[in-house]
């Protein structure tokens, strides 16, 4: 229900209105003054981001369940990059308490006590089988097994937790230096055969992005962007998936890292979504922009209508007060006399 005591501004949005020029260079030196949090940073896409930002001199704090791998990568990076401001923290993204502790500890590790960038990267592939391969073998009077909800807990609930905490803790940094990057997938836009739950969670992340890219606004100064990679050869892809993809074109990790690096370093990009396709299909491309802008235009009309309703309610109350003061009040006094 819209609260008529609050007035929204249709111009107070915080997203770029022009497409990203993906051929234009960006200033990587801006990464050196950032404190970047990455969930799920011990392997795969997160590790690629970690290595890139460590090399660029950023303070990078990654959280993951794989403590042995995470601590090993950090120790190796400190030696190879000379950057001592890289850290690993144990993190279970499905636990809100664990995420709260991760953010609090990260701020203590930051040289400035602030967080500038959060990348909600942690994710898993489809676990279990949501659609039974042979449903006819289960008698109708027998309930099918409960589906495995791990993928939902990690890919969607975990992202919701990270987003909520990011928007809270990013306030510690100056306006203009606050950014949240959501990691979706090509499955955010397309169907995924045999990946019903995974596709649903990535559609959910896209829905979250489309909603919150309009809020926080310029007042809050949080840039919210998203990446949607195609299949990349990382540990998240199960053996069966790798067999299925054998001989096919896949996206490359370097393109994913470059896309994230551009979003972090170019502080003029806000509310945009980059897909990472195989190099033969274009590599890094911007997607979903026109559709989202059409939806945004509709949302602005709704906001205007709600604001008009709010103004009409205030005006009506004002008129009632005037009528009471100038007409009803005197008439009642005359009747009493």
TrEMBL record:
Gene3D superfamilies associated with the record: NAD(P)-binding Rossmann-like Domain
Keyword Protease in record: no
Pfam families according to UniProt: adh_short (PF00106)
InterPro entries linked to this entry: NAD(P)-bd_dom_sf, Sc_DH/Rdtase_CS, SDR_fam
GO cellular component, one term: cytoplasm
Xref: PROSITE patterns: ADH_SHORT
Keywords of the record: NADP, Oxidoreductase
SUPFAM superfamilies per UniProt: NAD(P)-binding Rossmann-fold domains
Family per record: Belongs to the short-chain dehydrogenases/reductases (SDR) family.
PANTHER family with a match to the protein in the record: 15-HYDROXYPROSTAGLANDIN DEHYDROGENASE [NAD(+)] (PTHR44229:SF4)
Protein name in the entry: NAD(P)-binding protein
Lineage: Eukaryota, Fungi, Dikarya, Ascomycota, Pezizomycotina
């Amino acid at each position: 229900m819209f609260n008529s005591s609050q007035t929204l501004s249709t111009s107070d949005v915080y997203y770029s209105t022009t497409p990203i020029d993906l051929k234009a260079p960006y200033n990587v030196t801006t990464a050196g003054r950032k404190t970047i949090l990455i969930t799920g940073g011990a392997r795969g896409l997160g590790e690629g981001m970690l290595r890139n930002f460590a090399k660029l001199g950023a303070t990078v704090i990654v959280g993951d369940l794989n403590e042995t791998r995470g601590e090993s990568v950090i120790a190796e990076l400190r030696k190879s990059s000379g950057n001592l401001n890289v850290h690993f923290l144990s993190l279970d993204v499905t636990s809100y308490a664990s995420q709260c502790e991760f953010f609090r500890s990260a701020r203590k590790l930051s040289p400035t006590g602030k967080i500038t960038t959060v990348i909600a990267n942690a994710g898993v592939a489809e676990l279990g089988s949501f659609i039974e391969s042979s449903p006819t073998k289960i008698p109708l009077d027998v309930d099918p097994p409960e589906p495995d909800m791990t993928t939902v807990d990690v890919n969607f609930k975990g992202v919701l937790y990270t987003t909520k905490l990011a928007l809270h803790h990013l306030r510690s940094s100056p306006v203009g230096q606050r950014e949240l990057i959501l990691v979706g997938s090509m499955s955010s836009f397309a169907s995924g055969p045999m990946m019903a739950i995974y596709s649903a969670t990535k559609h959910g992340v896209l829905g979250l992005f489309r909603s919150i890219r309009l809020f926080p606004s310029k007042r809050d100064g949080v840039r919210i962007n998203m990446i949607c990679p195609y299949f990349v050869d990382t540990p998240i892809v199960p053996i069966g998936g790798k067999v299925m993809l054998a001989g096919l074109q896949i996206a490359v990790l370097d393109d994913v890292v470059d896309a994230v690096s551009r979003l972090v370093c170019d502080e003029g990009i806000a509310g945009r979504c980059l897909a990472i396709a195989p190099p033969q299909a274009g590599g890094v491309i911007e997607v979903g922009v026109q559709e989202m802008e059409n939806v945004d235009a509709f949302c602005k009309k709704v906001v205007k209508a709600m604001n008009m309703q709010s103004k009409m309610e205030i005006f009506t109350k004002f008129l009632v007060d005037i009528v009471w003061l100038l007409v009803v009040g005197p008439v009642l006094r005359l009747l009493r006399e």
